[in-house]
Amino acid sequence: MSHFKYNSEKGLFLPQPHRYRRALFLGVGPTLFSSPIAAGGFDPLYVPTNYTLSGSNKTVSSTSSSANTAVLSLNTHSSGKYYFEFAFNTYLLNSIGINNDARATAVSSQVGDTSHSWGWLNQNNTYHGGSVTAYGPGGTNGMVVGCAIDWTAGNIWWSKNNVWPNSGDPAAGTNPAYTGQSFGTAYIACTLYLGAPTSGTCKFTTASLTYTPPSGFSAWE
How many CB atoms lie under 10 A from the CB of residue 208? Predict the structure, then answer.
């Protein structure tokens, strides 16, 4: 179906062709979309072959057996204080956080593999630059992982069901998982366990959040 645009010279509305967007599915090749891409959610232009998106691109599922990769949010931030959640339907190993690498690079690595990404690995370790540090109680089915990022201070925290490990307090700016970091222009990045199917839904908007963001923080949107 075409849409129409007014032509002032002819005084008529003339049909216009669709504008197609090409999506990169790693290992599959380009795919064409004939419908507009909705704002928010994960970026459907960069989806590794071991993932599928659904629910307005906010729910991600992984298939069994594949290399470590990630899905990335469409929207980015480079300043301010923001919060998002990831609600697991089925939990296995994962890494949830942010990444400021180029998208083509970020989608091809586990969150925390590089110096450009920060992840909460399996909910019992932080993971950044390939280094693991103990942090948190571990993951469970049905849990809600929260993540709060303060760009000015370079601080990042994670929570499990609204409990912040190590007495972390984003509102007070105390006991972050990492401090003094340069987050740059970053997007949400999620790596799911690739040895068996895993799925969950990222909560980007205020209306979708399970918990209230820490004072001073806004929903990612």
Answer: 16
Check if the beta carbon of residue 192 is closer than 8 Å to that of residue 86: no
Cβ count near 61 (within 10 Å)? 16
Tokens representing 191 are 């790596």
Q: Tell me the C-alpha distance between 95 and 114, whole Å.
A: 13
Measured between its terminal Cα atoms, the distance across the chain in Å is 31
Domains in the chain, please, with CATH? 50-219 (2.60.120.920)
Distance from C-alpha of 88 to C-alpha of 160, rounded to nearest angstrom: 11
Global pTM reads: 0.82
- The Cα 221–Cα 218 span in angstroms is 8
CA distances from 131 to 18, 39, 127, 152, 166 (A): 47, 34, 6, 23, 19
pLDDT tens, residue by residue, 55-90: 999 999 987 655 689 999 999 999 999 999 999 988
Three state DSSP letters for 164-204: CHHHCECCCCECCCECCCCCCCEEEEEEECCCCCEEEEEEC
